[in-house]
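**Folding the chain**
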Amino acid sequence: MSTDWSTQVLRFALALTLFFFGVGLAFAEGRCPPGQYPIGGQGVGGCAPIPAGGSGSESPRPTGRWIKTWGAFASSPSGIAGAASGWRKKGDASNAAVRSCSDSGGRDCRVKFTYKNQCGTAAVSKTGTGGTFYSAAATKEEASSLSLAQCGAASQEKCEVVMSNCTEPEFEKV
C-alpha cells in the first residue's frame, strides 16, 4: 500500500508542478493578447504591440541591384599606355583606355587587358624586355603580386608594376 501512496504523492507533485509552470507560460505576456506586451502601471494598464525585429534599431535594407563596372589598359608599340576604369560597359572602358593612350601621344593604341569589379595591374621587367604581364584581383596588392610573379618567371629578371587601376561595382537603387 505504501507504493500506491507514494505514486499518488508523486502524481500530485507532478500535476502541481505542471499547473504552476503551465500558468507561468500561459500568462507570460500578462493580461495582454498574443503579440502584445503590458504597459503602464499602478492601476493604469494597457497593451502595446511587440516591435518587429527585436530592438527596432536596425535600418531598412536598401532595395536595388549591383551594376558591374569595367576597367581596361591600352598601349601603343612605342610603349605609351593608357588606362580607364568605372565604365558600365566593357566596350566603353576599352574605348576610354585607347583614348587615354592616344591623348598621351601613343599611335596605334590597342586594348591589352580588361577587367571588371577588380583591380588590374601591368608589370614589366626592369630592362623592358620580355613583354608586359597583366593581372586582376580583389586588391591592387594581390594583382601586383600576380603580375610581378608572372613577369619574374618569364623574364628571369626583377620586374616592376607600371600601371594599376581599380573599378568597383555601383549600387543602383530601384
Notes: The longest strand covers residues 159-166. The chain has three helices and ten strands. Residues 23-29 have pLDDT under 50 and may be disordered.
